[in-house]
Amino acid sequence: MFKTWHHPGKVFDRKNVYTGRVFSVDQLHIQTPDGLKIERDLIKTDPTITILAISPDDQVVMSSEYRAGVNSDSVSLPAGIVNPGETSEQAAARELREETGYVAKSVTKMTRITSSEGFMDQFADLMLIQFDPSERVERHFDKDEFVNSELVPLQQVVDWIHEGKVNTAQAVSSVGYYTMFLK
C-alpha cells in the first residue's frame, strides 16, 4: 500500500528566489519517488508550535491577534516560532508565558502536522500544556505584536470550531487531536 509513502524525492537544483523576514522561496527541480521530473516553488519557514493550554477545570487559553494573511484579528490558540537551539517544549512554555502570562506546569507534544506540504516546508508541533490559572506573570510581546488572551471553556472552543468561528488549521487539529485521543 502506497509504495513510495515517505520516500524523498531527489533535488537536482535549488535556487533561492526570495528571502524575507519570515520566509524565503526556493525554486526546485526534483525527481519524485515515482520518477517524475518536476519544478516547484517551495516556501521555507522556521518550525512552529501551537499550544493547547488547559487548566484543571478544562478552561482553554484562547488568543486574539491581528493576522496579515486574513487581514483581520483572529481568535485561535497561542502559537509561535521555535527559536534556534530551542526544543518545541521550551518554545511552547516560552510563548505561553510571553503572550499570555500563564506559566506551564507540564508540556507534552501531542503530534506534528504540516500546513501546506504541496508548496511549504512548515510543520507545527501541537503542544498540550497544563497550567494553573492563578499563577500568572507579566507578558512580554515582540515589538510588532500585541495579543489578547482569555480563558474559554473547552466545550465553547469545540462549538466555535464547529460553527467556523475558530478555523485555523492548527487550532482545529490541536483540539481535534486532544478530544479524539487524549481526553
Automatic annotation (TrEMBL):
Cofactor(s) listed: Mg(2+)
Q: What one GO molecular function would you report for this record?
A: pyrophosphatase activity
Give the GO terms filed under biological process for this record.
nucleoside phosphate metabolic process; ribose phosphate metabolic process
InterPro entries found in the cross-reference section: Nudix_hydrolase, NUDIX_hydrolase-like_dom_sf, NUDIX_hydrolase_CS, NUDIX_hydrolase_dom
**Short name of any one Pfam family annotated for the protein:** NUDIX
Q: Highest taxon of the source?
A: Bacteria
Residues annotated as domain Nudix hydrolase: 44-174
Q: Which UniProt keywords apply?
A: Hydrolase
Q: Which family does it belong to?
A: Belongs to the Nudix hydrolase family.
The identity of this protein, by name, is NUDIX family hydrolase
What is the source species?
Lentilactobacillus parakefiri
Designated gene of the protein: mutT_4
